[in-house]
Amino acid sequence: MANDIKDIRMASGGKSRIQWADSMMPVLRLIRNRFAQEKPLKGIRIAACLHVTSETANLARTLKEGGAAVRLCASNPLSTQDEVAASLLKDYGVDVFAIRSEDKKTYYSHIHSVLDIDPHITMDDGADLISTIHSERKDLAEKVLGGTEETTTGVIRLRSMAKEGVLKYPIIAVNDADTKHLFDNRYGTGQSTIDGILRATNILLAGSVFVVCGYGWCGRGIAMRARGMGAKVIVCEVDPLRALEASMDGYLVMPLIEASTLGDIFVTSTGDRSVVAGEHFERMKDGAIVANAGHFNVEINLDDLEKLTLERKKIRRDIEQFKLKNGKRINLLGEGRLVNLAAAEGHPSLVMDMSFANQAFCCEYLAKEGKSLEKKVYEVPKDIDRQIAQLKLKSMGIKIDKLTQEQKDYLSSWKIGT
Ligand code: ADE
User: Is the CB of 389 within 6 Å of ligand 1?
Assistant: First the structure.
């Protein structure tokens, strides 16, 4: 079977969503038009494990136009847009294995189905394809030219594999490109996390106390946007530099155990596990809202929450309410999974344009250069990053200045002083 989706009859709604997203992805469109002419991925088989959204659909179309055979599964059981999956299959010939709310067993069976393509390139958002190849499908590794990784959490996993010397093929850390994390992680996660919380709850943010755990690029974006909506923002951090930065950015900084009694809304974006745990739930106000914006659903300790709970019930599509033994109620959004994709639509297309332009360029690069690379984690080549920034500016109608020869000479000389 070359697909497993919810319902092919949903395709027409999916197609118009994909086209709407495409109208805000001009850089990817330029790449797609060039790929259609040059076919740089001819004969290449790509296994992709990404959030199955309208933006991802436009990436998959681009890879197909480049000549690749593409199989796609979800990188999170709750992020699939079923109508998009249907249209990808029906209108664009991409084999899709993804159904929103699939259980863990189906999620992993879809990963295996995608790997059955016997890939030359793997494309991950969270490293699940790569870790499955390294644990259960070792036979596939030899043919793989290289892989790409979309997210911070995945890059951390892959760097630790490279450090232990177990990585079986080269990886490009797409996340670490400037045109990715400075925009997608900050402005994308910033906006879409607030969007997810608001769609799930319809609360008023103005005047609320909003606690952000983790002040990486995602946390910075979330804190900035929550403040923009009038919330009083507290940042909790373990890294002294980031904590200092949060403080000088104007936020209150304190340990989560102290913030627990103050917050109305708690959002995790740390990439680590058990950030919000039993001792925090016990101290929270009645009605507190808890959500996760990190890749995996381990940041909020749900076992702890369950142990403290007397009864639980679903009160809106994306809210489960836990009544604790101490009488207080905690509202968990989107089952503790990525709230921006579980309760909203993920990052807006305009920002995913840059992230996925990086993915498309990196696939082209791996198809060309993969054989000569070592088994380690590479940065995105600087000229790709620059090219994407230039194309994005152009698409936005923004012109910038150029250095004069005199200025270039000055910047490259150590002899010119006062
Ligand atoms: N990650 C975050 N937002 C996304 C989106 N809209 N599409 C694919 N991956 C995403």
Answer: no
